[in-house]
Amino acid sequence: MVLRTRMNSFNDDQKSVLARKLSQLLDTAPEHEKGFYESNFKGFKNLYTRFLDEREEPLEWDEITPLPEDFILKSFDMTVPEEEVRDLLNKLVVIKLNGGLGTSMGCVGPKSAITVRGGKTFLDVTVEQISAINEKYDISVPLVLMNSFNTDEDTINILRKYMAANVDIHSFNQSKFPRINQETLMPFAESVESKVDKEGWYPPGHGDLYQSFYNSGLLDQMLGEGKEYVFVSNVDNLGATVDETILKQLIEESIDFAMELTDKTQSDVKGGTLIRYRDEIRLLEIAQVPNEHIDDFKSKFKLFNTNNLWMKLESVKNVVEANLINLDIIFNQKTLSDGNKIIQLETAVGSGVKCFKKSVGLHVNRDRFLPVKTTSDLLLVMSNIYKVHHGFLKMSDKRVFGTTPLVKLGHEFSKMKEFNRRLKDIPNMIDLDHLTVSGDVTFGKGVTLKGTVIIIANHGERIDIPTGAELENKIVSGNLRILDH
Length: 485
Description:
It contains 13 helices and 26 strands. It has helices at residues 2-8, 12-27, 34-53, 82-89, 122-137, 152-159, 209-216, 218-224, 244-252, 294-300, 313-321, 375-382, 416-422, and strands at 64-65, 72-74, 92-98, 115-117, 120-121, 143-147, 169-173, 177-178, 180-181, 201-202, 229-234, 257-263, 273-277, 280-284, 303-312, 330-335, 341-346, 359-363, 386-389, 392-395, 406-409, 428-438, 441-443, 448-456, 463-465, 470-477.
Protein backbone atom coordinates (compact mmCIF):
# COMPACT_ATOMS: atom_id res chain seq x y z
CA MET A 1 0.00 0.00 0.00
CA VAL A 2 2.85 2.41 0.87
CA LEU A 3 4.61 1.56 -2.38
CA ARG A 4 1.45 2.17 -4.39
CA THR A 5 0.98 5.55 -2.66
CA ARG A 6 4.54 6.54 -3.58
CA MET A 7 3.91 5.54 -7.19
CA ASN A 8 0.68 7.55 -7.25
CA SER A 9 2.72 10.67 -6.36
CA PHE A 10 5.13 10.14 -9.26
CA ASN A 11 5.35 13.61 -10.83
CA ASP A 12 6.32 15.10 -14.19
CA ASP A 13 9.92 15.70 -13.04
CA GLN A 14 10.29 12.02 -12.19
CA LYS A 15 8.82 11.08 -15.58
CA SER A 16 11.57 13.20 -17.15
CA VAL A 17 14.16 11.31 -15.07
CA LEU A 18 12.63 8.05 -16.33
CA ALA A 19 12.99 9.23 -19.93
CA ARG A 20 16.66 10.08 -19.34
CA LYS A 21 17.29 6.71 -17.72
CA LEU A 22 15.79 4.90 -20.71
CA SER A 23 17.92 7.04 -23.03
CA GLN A 24 21.04 6.04 -21.08
CA LEU A 25 20.08 2.38 -21.37
CA LEU A 26 19.57 2.80 -25.12
CA ASP A 27 23.13 4.13 -25.40
CA THR A 28 24.40 0.73 -24.16
CA ALA A 29 22.73 -1.11 -27.06
CA PRO A 30 24.70 -2.18 -30.15
CA GLU A 31 23.84 -0.04 -33.16
CA HIS A 32 22.04 -2.87 -34.97
CA GLU A 33 19.76 -3.43 -31.93
CA LYS A 34 18.82 0.17 -31.18
CA GLY A 35 15.59 -0.04 -33.21
CA PHE A 36 14.51 -3.11 -31.19
CA TYR A 37 15.13 -1.38 -27.86
CA GLU A 38 13.55 1.90 -28.98
CA SER A 39 10.35 -0.02 -29.75
CA ASN A 40 10.54 -1.93 -26.45
CA PHE A 41 11.17 1.20 -24.40
CA LYS A 42 8.23 2.91 -26.04
CA GLY A 43 6.00 0.02 -24.99
CA PHE A 44 7.47 -0.03 -21.48
CA LYS A 45 7.05 3.73 -21.04
CA ASN A 46 3.43 3.56 -22.24
CA LEU A 47 2.65 0.73 -19.80
CA TYR A 48 4.43 2.36 -16.85
CA THR A 49 2.90 5.79 -17.52
CA ARG A 50 -0.55 4.26 -17.86
CA PHE A 51 -0.09 2.44 -14.57
CA LEU A 52 1.02 5.64 -12.83
CA ASP A 53 -1.84 7.68 -14.29
CA GLU A 54 -4.53 5.14 -13.44
CA ARG A 55 -5.34 5.44 -9.75
CA GLU A 56 -5.88 2.00 -8.25
CA GLU A 57 -9.53 1.25 -7.58
CA PRO A 58 -10.38 -1.75 -5.40
CA LEU A 59 -12.66 -4.31 -7.00
CA GLU A 60 -16.20 -3.78 -5.78
CA TRP A 61 -17.33 -7.38 -5.33
CA ASP A 62 -21.02 -6.52 -5.27
CA GLU A 63 -20.77 -4.96 -8.74
CA ILE A 64 -19.86 -8.28 -10.36
CA THR A 65 -22.97 -9.51 -12.18
CA PRO A 66 -23.68 -12.70 -14.16
CA LEU A 67 -22.44 -12.88 -17.73
CA PRO A 68 -25.04 -12.33 -20.45
CA GLU A 69 -26.74 -15.63 -21.31
CA ASP A 70 -25.60 -15.48 -24.92
CA PHE A 71 -21.96 -14.76 -24.04
CA ILE A 72 -20.99 -18.36 -23.19
CA LEU A 73 -21.33 -20.65 -26.19
CA LYS A 74 -21.23 -24.42 -25.96
CA SER A 75 -18.74 -25.94 -28.38
CA PHE A 76 -20.24 -27.97 -31.21
CA ASP A 77 -20.20 -31.77 -31.08
CA MET A 78 -20.29 -32.77 -34.72
CA THR A 79 -18.38 -34.38 -37.54
CA VAL A 80 -17.18 -32.03 -40.27
CA PRO A 81 -16.84 -33.51 -43.80
CA GLU A 82 -13.19 -34.01 -44.76
CA GLU A 83 -13.29 -31.60 -47.71
CA GLU A 84 -14.73 -28.89 -45.47
CA VAL A 85 -12.07 -29.61 -42.83
CA ARG A 86 -9.39 -28.96 -45.44
CA ASP A 87 -10.90 -25.60 -46.36
CA LEU A 88 -11.33 -24.60 -42.71
CA LEU A 89 -7.83 -25.50 -41.56
CA ASN A 90 -6.27 -23.76 -44.56
CA LYS A 91 -7.45 -20.52 -42.92
CA LEU A 92 -5.70 -21.22 -39.60
CA VAL A 93 -2.44 -20.18 -37.93
CA VAL A 94 -1.27 -21.77 -34.65
CA ILE A 95 0.67 -19.71 -32.09
CA LYS A 96 2.30 -21.33 -29.08
CA LEU A 97 3.38 -19.17 -26.15
CA ASN A 98 7.01 -20.25 -25.69
CA GLY A 99 8.51 -17.63 -23.39
CA GLY A 100 8.89 -19.68 -20.21
CA LEU A 101 11.90 -21.49 -18.80
CA GLY A 102 11.93 -24.92 -17.17
CA THR A 103 13.58 -23.67 -13.98
CA SER A 104 10.58 -24.43 -11.74
CA MET A 105 11.06 -28.12 -12.60
CA GLY A 106 14.83 -27.96 -12.19
CA CYS A 107 15.61 -27.80 -15.91
CA VAL A 108 17.86 -25.47 -17.89
CA GLY A 109 16.55 -23.76 -21.04
CA PRO A 110 13.05 -23.41 -22.52
CA LYS A 111 10.28 -25.33 -20.83
CA SER A 112 9.19 -26.54 -24.27
CA ALA A 113 12.41 -28.64 -24.40
CA ILE A 114 11.41 -30.78 -21.38
CA THR A 115 10.71 -34.44 -22.24
CA VAL A 116 7.08 -35.25 -21.48
CA ARG A 117 6.08 -38.47 -23.22
CA GLY A 118 7.89 -41.26 -25.05
CA GLY A 119 11.16 -39.33 -25.22
CA LYS A 120 9.43 -36.39 -26.91
CA THR A 121 9.41 -32.78 -25.72
CA PHE A 122 6.52 -30.30 -25.68
CA LEU A 123 7.85 -28.86 -28.93
CA ASP A 124 8.25 -32.31 -30.52
CA VAL A 125 4.62 -33.10 -29.69
CA THR A 126 3.39 -29.78 -31.10
CA VAL A 127 5.29 -30.18 -34.36
CA GLU A 128 4.10 -33.79 -34.68
CA GLN A 129 0.46 -32.73 -34.23
CA ILE A 130 0.56 -30.03 -36.89
CA SER A 131 2.66 -32.12 -39.26
CA ALA A 132 0.05 -34.92 -39.07
CA ILE A 133 -2.74 -32.44 -39.90
CA ASN A 134 -0.82 -31.00 -42.85
CA GLU A 135 -0.06 -34.45 -44.25
CA LYS A 136 -3.59 -35.78 -43.79
CA TYR A 137 -5.31 -32.87 -45.53
CA ASP A 138 -2.48 -31.79 -47.87
CA ILE A 139 -2.51 -28.25 -46.46
CA SER A 140 -0.11 -25.89 -44.70
CA VAL A 141 -1.09 -24.85 -41.18
CA PRO A 142 1.89 -22.77 -40.00
CA LEU A 143 3.28 -22.90 -36.46
CA VAL A 144 4.38 -19.63 -34.88
CA LEU A 145 6.30 -19.49 -31.59
CA MET A 146 6.26 -16.43 -29.36
CA ASN A 147 9.63 -16.64 -27.62
CA SER A 148 11.14 -14.42 -24.95
CA PHE A 149 14.73 -13.22 -24.71
CA ASN A 150 15.14 -16.08 -22.20
CA THR A 151 14.17 -18.80 -24.69
CA ASP A 152 14.84 -17.44 -28.18
CA GLU A 153 18.44 -18.50 -28.74
CA ASP A 154 17.92 -22.06 -27.48
CA THR A 155 14.64 -22.40 -29.39
CA ILE A 156 16.22 -21.31 -32.68
CA ASN A 157 18.88 -24.01 -32.23
CA ILE A 158 16.24 -26.64 -31.41
CA LEU A 159 14.15 -25.78 -34.48
CA ARG A 160 16.89 -27.06 -36.78
CA LYS A 161 15.81 -30.62 -35.98
CA TYR A 162 12.44 -29.97 -37.64
CA MET A 163 13.77 -28.83 -41.02
CA ALA A 164 12.39 -31.96 -42.67
CA ALA A 165 9.00 -31.73 -40.90
CA ASN A 166 5.89 -30.90 -42.89
CA VAL A 167 5.39 -27.63 -40.99
CA ASP A 168 6.32 -24.03 -41.74
CA ILE A 169 7.70 -22.78 -38.42
CA HIS A 170 8.11 -19.10 -37.63
CA SER A 171 9.02 -17.27 -34.44
CA PHE A 172 9.05 -13.80 -32.99
CA ASN A 173 10.12 -12.34 -29.67
CA GLN A 174 7.90 -10.74 -27.11
CA SER A 175 9.12 -7.49 -25.59
CA LYS A 176 12.02 -7.09 -23.19
CA PHE A 177 11.21 -4.61 -20.41
CA PRO A 178 13.43 -3.27 -17.59
CA ARG A 179 12.46 -4.20 -14.05
CA ILE A 180 11.65 -1.29 -11.75
CA ASN A 181 13.61 -0.70 -8.54
CA GLN A 182 11.11 -0.38 -5.67
CA GLU A 183 13.28 2.22 -3.92
CA THR A 184 13.96 4.59 -6.83
CA LEU A 185 10.94 3.66 -9.00
CA MET A 186 13.40 3.71 -11.92
CA PRO A 187 14.68 0.92 -14.17
CA PHE A 188 16.91 -1.48 -12.24
CA ALA A 189 19.15 -2.39 -15.19
CA GLU A 190 22.37 -0.59 -16.10
CA SER A 191 22.88 -2.27 -19.49
CA VAL A 192 20.69 -3.80 -22.20
CA GLU A 193 22.91 -6.87 -22.29
CA SER A 194 20.76 -9.40 -20.46
CA LYS A 195 23.61 -11.91 -20.09
CA VAL A 196 25.55 -9.28 -18.13
CA ASP A 197 22.58 -7.66 -16.38
CA LYS A 198 20.25 -10.67 -16.47
CA GLU A 199 18.10 -9.81 -13.47
CA GLY A 200 17.44 -6.31 -14.75
CA TRP A 201 15.03 -7.48 -17.46
CA TYR A 202 11.82 -9.46 -17.84
CA PRO A 203 9.29 -10.49 -20.52
CA PRO A 204 6.08 -8.56 -19.65
CA GLY A 205 3.56 -11.40 -19.79
CA HIS A 206 1.80 -13.01 -22.75
CA GLY A 207 -0.51 -10.00 -23.15
CA ASP A 208 2.40 -8.63 -25.16
CA LEU A 209 1.40 -10.99 -27.98
CA TYR A 210 -0.85 -8.50 -29.77
CA GLN A 211 1.72 -5.75 -30.29
CA SER A 212 4.74 -8.05 -30.74
CA PHE A 213 2.97 -10.26 -33.30
CA TYR A 214 1.98 -7.13 -35.20
CA ASN A 215 5.47 -5.60 -34.97
CA SER A 216 7.11 -8.79 -36.22
CA GLY A 217 5.40 -8.49 -39.61
CA LEU A 218 4.07 -12.05 -39.29
CA LEU A 219 0.48 -10.86 -38.80
CA ASP A 220 0.49 -9.12 -42.18
CA GLN A 221 2.34 -12.06 -43.73
CA MET A 222 -0.31 -14.52 -42.56
CA LEU A 223 -3.12 -12.32 -43.79
CA GLY A 224 -1.32 -12.07 -47.15
CA GLU A 225 -1.23 -15.88 -47.32
CA GLY A 226 -5.01 -16.03 -46.91
CA LYS A 227 -5.10 -17.00 -43.24
CA GLU A 228 -8.12 -15.77 -41.28
CA TYR A 229 -7.92 -17.09 -37.71
CA VAL A 230 -5.20 -17.76 -35.15
CA PHE A 231 -5.34 -20.34 -32.34
CA VAL A 232 -3.19 -19.28 -29.36
CA SER A 233 -2.28 -21.51 -26.41
CA ASN A 234 0.46 -22.29 -23.89
CA VAL A 235 3.09 -24.66 -25.25
CA ASP A 236 2.82 -26.76 -22.05
CA ASN A 237 -0.93 -27.43 -22.46
CA LEU A 238 -1.00 -30.81 -24.17
CA GLY A 239 -4.78 -30.63 -24.54
CA ALA A 240 -4.66 -27.45 -26.62
CA THR A 241 -4.90 -29.00 -30.07
CA VAL A 242 -6.34 -27.79 -33.37
CA ASP A 243 -10.10 -28.39 -33.48
CA GLU A 244 -11.89 -27.86 -36.79
CA THR A 245 -15.35 -27.88 -35.15
CA ILE A 246 -14.44 -24.87 -32.99
CA LEU A 247 -13.03 -23.06 -36.01
CA LYS A 248 -16.19 -23.79 -38.02
CA GLN A 249 -18.36 -22.42 -35.21
CA LEU A 250 -16.35 -19.20 -34.94
CA ILE A 251 -16.36 -18.59 -38.69
CA GLU A 252 -20.10 -19.24 -39.01
CA GLU A 253 -20.87 -16.81 -36.17
CA SER A 254 -18.18 -14.30 -37.23
CA ILE A 255 -16.53 -14.26 -33.81
CA ASP A 256 -13.59 -11.88 -33.31
CA PHE A 257 -12.28 -13.38 -30.06
CA ALA A 258 -13.11 -16.60 -28.23
CA MET A 259 -11.76 -17.82 -24.89
CA GLU A 260 -12.07 -21.53 -24.14
CA LEU A 261 -13.52 -22.11 -20.67
CA THR A 262 -13.91 -25.43 -18.93
CA ASP A 263 -15.38 -26.78 -15.71
CA LYS A 264 -13.46 -26.22 -12.49
CA THR A 265 -12.24 -29.19 -10.49
CA GLN A 266 -10.60 -29.22 -7.06
CA SER A 267 -7.28 -28.59 -8.83
CA ASP A 268 -8.46 -25.39 -10.54
CA VAL A 269 -9.98 -23.25 -7.78
CA LYS A 270 -7.41 -20.51 -8.42
CA GLY A 271 -8.03 -20.33 -12.17
CA GLY A 272 -9.04 -16.98 -13.72
CA THR A 273 -12.58 -16.56 -14.98
CA LEU A 274 -14.75 -14.23 -17.06
CA ILE A 275 -17.04 -11.76 -15.30
CA ARG A 276 -19.26 -8.81 -16.10
CA TYR A 277 -18.12 -5.80 -14.09
CA ARG A 278 -19.83 -2.45 -14.49
CA ASP A 279 -21.26 -3.60 -17.83
CA GLU A 280 -17.85 -4.66 -19.17
CA ILE A 281 -16.71 -8.23 -19.81
CA ARG A 282 -13.42 -8.81 -18.02
CA LEU A 283 -10.99 -11.57 -17.17
CA LEU A 284 -10.72 -11.80 -13.39
CA GLU A 285 -7.56 -13.35 -11.93
CA ILE A 286 -7.27 -14.41 -8.29
CA ALA A 287 -4.56 -11.75 -7.74
CA GLN A 288 -7.20 -9.06 -8.40
CA VAL A 289 -9.66 -10.41 -5.82
CA PRO A 290 -9.90 -8.72 -2.38
CA ASN A 291 -8.65 -11.04 0.38
CA GLU A 292 -12.05 -11.19 2.04
CA HIS A 293 -13.58 -12.60 -1.16
CA ILE A 294 -10.96 -15.25 -2.07
CA ASP A 295 -13.19 -18.08 -0.87
CA ASP A 296 -16.13 -16.61 -2.81
CA PHE A 297 -13.97 -16.49 -5.94
CA LYS A 298 -12.98 -20.15 -5.55
CA SER A 299 -16.55 -21.35 -5.11
CA LYS A 300 -18.76 -18.88 -7.01
CA PHE A 301 -17.43 -19.38 -10.53
CA LYS A 302 -17.84 -22.79 -12.13
CA LEU A 303 -15.83 -22.18 -15.31
CA PHE A 304 -12.24 -20.99 -15.70
CA ASN A 305 -9.94 -19.74 -18.43
CA THR A 306 -7.82 -22.41 -20.16
CA ASN A 307 -5.80 -19.72 -22.01
CA ASN A 308 -6.78 -21.40 -25.29
CA LEU A 309 -7.78 -18.43 -27.42
CA TRP A 310 -9.09 -18.02 -30.97
CA MET A 311 -8.94 -14.67 -32.78
CA LYS A 312 -9.79 -13.32 -36.18
CA LEU A 313 -6.52 -12.08 -37.66
CA GLU A 314 -8.08 -9.04 -39.32
CA SER A 315 -9.65 -8.04 -36.00
CA VAL A 316 -6.28 -8.32 -34.22
CA LYS A 317 -4.76 -6.04 -36.82
CA ASN A 318 -7.60 -3.54 -36.46
CA VAL A 319 -7.51 -3.28 -32.66
CA VAL A 320 -3.72 -2.88 -32.60
CA GLU A 321 -3.73 -0.18 -35.29
CA ALA A 322 -6.60 1.63 -33.56
CA ASN A 323 -4.68 1.49 -30.26
CA LEU A 324 -7.57 -0.37 -28.60
CA ILE A 325 -5.44 -2.93 -26.74
CA ASN A 326 -6.08 -1.73 -23.20
CA LEU A 327 -5.20 -4.76 -21.08
CA ASP A 328 -5.53 -4.93 -17.30
CA ILE A 329 -2.13 -4.36 -15.68
CA ILE A 330 -0.81 -6.99 -13.28
CA PHE A 331 1.32 -5.41 -10.53
CA ASN A 332 3.98 -7.96 -9.55
CA GLN A 333 6.46 -7.37 -6.69
CA LYS A 334 9.52 -9.62 -6.42
CA THR A 335 12.72 -9.97 -4.44
CA LEU A 336 15.74 -10.90 -6.58
CA SER A 337 18.43 -13.39 -5.57
CA ASP A 338 20.68 -10.56 -4.37
CA GLY A 339 17.92 -9.16 -2.14
CA ASN A 340 16.93 -6.25 -4.35
CA LYS A 341 13.20 -5.57 -4.41
CA ILE A 342 11.72 -4.88 -7.83
CA ILE A 343 8.41 -4.33 -9.63
CA GLN A 344 7.24 -5.97 -12.84
CA LEU A 345 4.26 -4.70 -14.77
CA GLU A 346 2.67 -7.49 -16.81
CA THR A 347 -0.42 -8.16 -18.90
CA ALA A 348 -2.34 -11.33 -19.79
CA VAL A 349 -3.41 -12.19 -23.34
CA GLY A 350 -6.87 -13.26 -22.13
CA SER A 351 -7.50 -9.74 -20.87
CA GLY A 352 -7.98 -8.84 -24.55
CA VAL A 353 -11.52 -10.24 -24.31
CA LYS A 354 -12.78 -6.69 -23.66
CA CYS A 355 -10.97 -5.16 -26.66
CA PHE A 356 -12.86 -6.86 -29.51
CA LYS A 357 -16.33 -6.12 -30.86
CA LYS A 358 -17.61 -9.69 -30.80
CA SER A 359 -16.02 -11.70 -27.99
CA VAL A 360 -17.39 -14.92 -26.49
CA GLY A 361 -16.54 -17.55 -23.94
CA LEU A 362 -16.56 -21.06 -25.36
CA HIS A 363 -17.46 -23.87 -22.95
CA VAL A 364 -15.30 -26.86 -23.92
CA ASN A 365 -14.66 -30.34 -22.57
CA ARG A 366 -12.05 -30.81 -19.89
CA ASP A 367 -9.75 -32.74 -22.22
CA ARG A 368 -8.76 -29.46 -23.89
CA PHE A 369 -6.96 -28.43 -20.70
CA LEU A 370 -4.01 -30.68 -19.92
CA PRO A 371 -1.23 -28.40 -18.67
CA VAL A 372 2.09 -29.53 -17.27
CA LYS A 373 3.11 -26.99 -14.65
CA THR A 374 4.60 -29.41 -12.11
CA THR A 375 6.00 -32.92 -11.90
CA SER A 376 2.61 -34.01 -10.52
CA ASP A 377 1.08 -32.98 -13.86
CA LEU A 378 3.95 -34.65 -15.69
CA LEU A 379 3.31 -37.98 -13.94
CA LEU A 380 -0.27 -37.88 -15.19
CA VAL A 381 0.56 -37.27 -18.86
CA MET A 382 3.35 -39.86 -18.82
CA SER A 383 1.04 -42.52 -17.40
CA ASN A 384 -1.20 -45.08 -19.09
CA ILE A 385 -4.22 -42.91 -18.28
CA TYR A 386 -3.49 -41.34 -21.66
CA LYS A 387 -2.79 -42.79 -25.06
CA VAL A 388 -1.05 -40.82 -27.78
CA HIS A 389 -1.43 -40.82 -31.56
CA HIS A 390 0.44 -38.38 -33.83
CA GLY A 391 1.10 -36.17 -30.82
CA PHE A 392 -2.56 -36.03 -29.73
CA LEU A 393 -3.20 -37.21 -26.16
CA LYS A 394 -6.54 -38.81 -25.36
CA MET A 395 -7.76 -40.52 -22.22
CA SER A 396 -7.49 -44.30 -22.47
CA ASP A 397 -10.67 -46.24 -23.21
CA LYS A 398 -9.65 -48.58 -20.37
CA ARG A 399 -10.18 -45.88 -17.75
CA VAL A 400 -13.57 -46.22 -16.07
CA PHE A 401 -13.54 -42.74 -14.49
CA GLY A 402 -14.28 -39.83 -16.81
CA THR A 403 -11.92 -37.48 -15.01
CA THR A 404 -8.19 -37.41 -14.31
CA PRO A 405 -7.05 -38.40 -10.81
CA LEU A 406 -5.82 -35.86 -8.30
CA VAL A 407 -2.04 -36.27 -7.94
CA LYS A 408 0.03 -34.47 -5.31
CA LEU A 409 3.74 -35.22 -5.23
CA GLY A 410 5.80 -33.74 -2.41
CA HIS A 411 8.66 -31.29 -2.91
CA GLU A 412 11.09 -34.21 -3.00
CA PHE A 413 9.75 -34.94 -6.52
CA SER A 414 9.54 -31.30 -7.71
CA LYS A 415 12.75 -31.30 -9.79
CA MET A 416 13.20 -33.55 -12.81
CA LYS A 417 16.44 -35.11 -11.55
CA GLU A 418 14.79 -36.33 -8.35
CA PHE A 419 11.54 -37.23 -10.15
CA ASN A 420 13.45 -39.56 -12.47
CA ARG A 421 15.55 -41.01 -9.64
CA ARG A 422 12.57 -41.80 -7.41
CA LEU A 423 10.46 -43.41 -10.15
CA LYS A 424 12.10 -46.45 -11.76
CA ASP A 425 9.26 -46.33 -14.26
CA ILE A 426 5.77 -44.82 -14.41
CA PRO A 427 3.23 -46.76 -12.30
CA ASN A 428 0.06 -48.27 -13.75
CA MET A 429 -2.49 -45.57 -12.82
CA ILE A 430 -5.45 -46.53 -15.02
CA ASP A 431 -7.71 -47.11 -11.97
CA LEU A 432 -6.26 -44.39 -9.74
CA ASP A 433 -8.53 -41.78 -8.17
CA HIS A 434 -6.21 -39.92 -5.79
CA LEU A 435 -2.46 -40.09 -5.08
CA THR A 436 -0.57 -38.17 -2.39
CA VAL A 437 3.15 -38.78 -1.89
CA SER A 438 5.26 -36.97 0.69
CA GLY A 439 8.77 -37.46 2.02
CA ASP A 440 11.62 -39.77 1.04
CA VAL A 441 9.72 -42.21 -1.19
CA THR A 442 10.86 -44.27 -4.18
CA PHE A 443 8.93 -46.55 -6.56
CA GLY A 444 10.20 -49.78 -8.09
CA LYS A 445 9.25 -51.06 -11.54
CA GLY A 446 5.80 -52.35 -12.43
CA VAL A 447 3.95 -50.71 -9.52
CA THR A 448 0.12 -50.49 -9.77
CA LEU A 449 -1.88 -47.79 -7.98
CA LYS A 450 -5.67 -48.01 -7.62
CA GLY A 451 -8.34 -45.97 -5.85
CA THR A 452 -6.95 -43.64 -3.19
CA VAL A 453 -3.29 -44.12 -2.29
CA ILE A 454 -1.50 -42.01 0.32
CA ILE A 455 2.21 -42.56 0.99
CA ILE A 456 3.80 -40.51 3.77
CA ALA A 457 7.41 -40.85 4.91
CA ASN A 458 7.94 -38.55 7.88
CA HIS A 459 11.22 -36.82 8.62
CA GLY A 460 13.99 -39.39 9.00
CA GLU A 461 11.92 -42.17 7.47
CA ARG A 462 12.15 -43.79 4.04
CA ILE A 463 9.64 -45.78 2.03
CA ASP A 464 10.61 -47.89 -0.99
CA ILE A 465 7.57 -49.21 -2.86
CA PRO A 466 8.86 -52.57 -4.15
CA THR A 467 8.86 -53.71 -7.74
CA GLY A 468 5.54 -55.25 -8.78
CA ALA A 469 3.63 -53.89 -5.77
CA GLU A 470 -0.11 -53.25 -6.10
CA LEU A 471 -1.63 -50.63 -3.79
CA GLU A 472 -5.39 -50.18 -3.76
CA ASN A 473 -7.06 -47.78 -1.29
CA LYS A 474 -4.01 -47.90 0.96
CA ILE A 475 -2.23 -45.54 3.36
CA VAL A 476 1.49 -46.30 3.65
CA SER A 477 3.54 -44.64 6.39
CA GLY A 478 6.59 -45.26 8.56
CA ASN A 479 9.64 -47.05 7.12
CA LEU A 480 9.55 -49.62 4.32
CA ARG A 481 12.69 -50.97 2.66
CA ILE A 482 13.21 -54.29 0.92
CA LEU A 483 16.90 -55.03 0.31
CA ASP A 484 18.52 -57.57 -2.01
CA HIS A 485 20.76 -60.15 -0.31
